[in-house]
Amino acid sequence: MDGPLGLGHRRLSIIDLSEAAHEPLTNEDGTLWLVFNGEIYNFRELRRELEGRHRFRSQGDGETILHLYEERGEEAVRALDGMFAFALWDAKRRRLLLARDRSGKKPLFYYDGPGLFAFASEVKALLAHPDVPHERDDSALPLYLTYGYVPTPGTFYRGIRALPPGHLLVASETGTESPRPYWKVRFRDGRLDGDGQLEERFRDLLRQAVARRLVADVPLGAFLSGGLDSATVVAFMSEAASGRVKTFTIGFAGGREYDEREHARVVAERFGTEHTEFVVEPKALDLVDRLVWHHDGPFGDSSAIPTYLLSELTRAHVTVALNGDGGDEVFGGYLRMYGGALSERLPRWTFRAATAALGLLPEPKDRKHPLRFAKRFAEAGSLPLVERYLRWNGYFSAGLLDLLRPELHTHAQRDRLLASYREPLERPAEPGQEGRSSTLSRLLQLNFETYLLDDLNVKMDRMSMAHALETRSPFLDTAVIEFGASLPDRLRMRLGRGKLLLRRAMRGILPESILARGKMGFGAPLGAWFRGELDAFVRERLLQSTSPIYEYLRPEPVAALVSAHRRAAADLSPQIWALLTLESWLRQEGSWPRHGPTR
Fold first, then answer.
1. Could you tell me which residues come within 8 angstroms of residue 521 by beta carbon, excluding any fewer than 6 positions away?
2. Mean pLDDT, range 104-133, rounded to an integer
3. Distance between CA 536 and CA 380 in Å, rounded?
4. What are phi and psi of 573, to 5 degrees?
5. Per residue in 254-274, is it b (16+ CB within 10 Å) or e — as a string?
6. Rounded CA separation 288/580 (Å)
7. Between 322 and 10, residue with greater pLDDT
8. Are 421 and 391 in contact (CB under 8 A)?
């Protein structure tokens, strides 16, 4: 405590487990105080620069932030490379500095109201403050039903905001400044030549990124899906580690199309890892209330289920796990990106003709069936690019007004729903920027600022930290991101095949079967589960007239959706999951933070 300021912290000790590294941390004369979540991967280099001029009490990375601020002030954040959210109190200047890492790996929420500025890593912590209003923001519901999340900086609560990634914010007793960026990246169709040199440069950057993420004073391992990205991380971990790398994989009973265990075994055998496998049963859906608790609200991405369980089981063996997150987002791994670029080159009449022809074929039961992708591609083809891409990615992007009660229609205006996609997609080039703005580079920009930030990073952070497991993502290293953003499109995707440079760079290192694999995705076989073992669960939660979702939704469209899925007219499991987590949040959030998740 210092006058009007209070700082609190609960630490997951990773580097320097001693009391000297416990937080809040302070400098030599006690004029600076820090609370910090995450890891600074270049702290050793920064520390070497500072040690001659400052006295360090610990061996941890957090203290580096304090002494760097003493010399550079707010500019210190630009020198930090890592995943972090921190608050630094400058007692002399009576100013509080908040900052968040470049890609948004670590969360940071704040409330700025009359006579109070409060911040926390979790929304529930803010709701614990008596002067922070506990009020749902009804205008967030149409956004959630569209995207499966509320785009940053919004949240599900009035007055509570998320600090955008790559931004800092200054608060004082006289007021709060608007968040301002300290870093930004722009994806372009670059003009780089010398493919062999680019492959070598890519390998060097990834090796360095992996090596820096192996610094820990606790046991360490890796998530291994059998995909290209996680296999690459494990390959470079095996080069750098002093012993056998511990790897962890999850699979699904009765869901082969979602099960990558056999591919993970190939990688584990190639690099001689100490490999552990887990299997998820349909009863995993019983976790829905707990997952909503940890997300501080509904969350549309059902791969939170295996991520939560994999993290729980991995934590029994290690405290830190590396993963392949970011590879698809930075280097172009999604088929929808190629579809977006291709669709801009085709005349509109081809989509109308394809829609008519494909409409004669029955709807596939499996949402991963190629025919389903073809139908979705054709049906959205005549829309403007921003709406087309949302139609491919969204949950209820079509039929939303029919689903919502009329009083929410004012919050579901088209321009409002499209804003988070439109801004990065239509942003003009900056003067002097190298390369050209292509459709593919703009979609990479959009994906980096939306899906990566508000879906993938949120899921990985909340589901792993629920078990006190720290996860690290080498593909989201600053140098790797900036390198990926500068690549020419010809090294990203071609004829529907993504991450071309990564595939070339890893030839001779990874097994050929892994290099040849397409994108599978980390999901759960919810379609079959919702028609089988979990059918009663779905009907109990969504079709009862007393369900809290009907405060906002009309019952007829919900019933029609569940019925269509049950009779296999379509695979609507993503929409059903989104409604299940919404129902769970509405039912339990009124008791937050006094009580834990409903069981």
1. 303, 368
2. 96
3. 33
4. -60, -35
5. ebeebbbbebbbbbbebbebe
6. 8
7. 322
8. no
Which tens digit of pLDDT belongs to each residue from 83-96?
999 999 999 999 99
Residues 456-498 pLDDT 10s? 999 999 999 999 999 999 999 999 999 999 999 999 999 889 9
- CA torsion 56-62-67-68 (nearest 10°) is 140
Task: Say if CB 95 and CB 170 are below 8 A apart.
Answer: yes
- The tens digit of pLDDT for each residue in 404-444 reads 999 999 999 999 999 999 999 988 877 777 778 899 999 99
- Beta pairing class for 246-252 and 175-176: unpaired
Cis, bond preceding 488 (omega within 30 deg of 0)? no
Q: What is the CA radius of gyration of the chain?
A: 24
Instruction: Say if CB 524 and CB 274 are below 8 A apart.
Output: no
Distance CA(562)–CA(530), nearest Å, equals 9
Dump pLDDT digits (tens) for 405-415. 999 999 999 99
Determine the Cα–Cα distance for residues 450 and 446; give it in Å rounded to an integer. 6
Query: What are the backbone dihedrals phi and psi of residue 481, each rounded to the nearest 5 degrees, phi first?
Result: -60, -50
Q: How are beta strands 320-322 and 470-472 bridged, if at all?
A: parallel
Q: List phi, psi (to 5°) of 40.
A: -105, 110
**DSSP H helical ranges for 408-453:** 414-426, 439-449, 451
For the range 119-128, what are the long-range contacts, defined as Cβ-Cβ under 8 Å and sequence gap of 24 or more?
A: 119/87, 121/37, 121/85, 122/296, 123/155, 123/156, 123/157, 123/160, 123/296, 123/297, 124/296, 124/592, 124/593, 125/593, 126/157, 126/160, 127/157, 127/592, 127/593, 128/593
Q: Which residue in 581, 552, 593 sits closest to 289, CA to CA?
A: 581
Distance separating alpha carbons of residues 214 and 242, to the nearest angstrom? 10
pLDDT band for position 599 (50/70/90)? very low
Nearest to 112 by CA among 153, 52, 64: 153
Query: Can you tell me the distance from the alpha carbon of 297 to that of 291, in angstroms, rounded to the nearest whole number?
Result: 9
Q: What is the 3-state secondary structure (H, E, C) of 280-344?
A: ECHHHHHHHHHHHHHHCCCCCCCCHHHHHHHHHHHHCCCCEEECCCCHHHHHCCCHHHHHHHHHC
Task: Name residue, tokens 């790897």.
Answer: 247
What angle in degrees, to the nearest 10, is found between the helix axes of 414-426 and 140-147? 60
Closest CA to 87 of 345, 79, 95: 95
Q: How far is CA 364 from the centre of its chain?
A: 29
Burial of 3 (0-12, 13-18, 19+ CB in 10 A): exposed
Can you tell me the distance from the alpha carbon of 92 to that of 364, in angstroms, rounded to the nearest whole number? Answer: 65
Neighbours of 464 (CB within 10 A): 25
pTM for the whole structure: 0.93
Question: What are the Cα distances from residue 420, in Å, to 41, 147, 150, 390?
Answer: 30, 10, 10, 10
Distance from C-alpha of 581 to C-alpha of 298, rounded to nearest angstrom: 5
Q: Is the pLDDT of residue 21 over 70?
A: no
| Confidence category of residue 10, pLDDT binned at 50, 70, 90 | confident
Provide CB contacts within 8 A for 313, sequence distance 6+: 248, 250, 276, 278
For range 530-549, the mean pLDDT: 94
Q: 521 — alpha (psi -120 to 50), left (phi > 0) or beta? A: left
d(CA 577, CA 581): 6
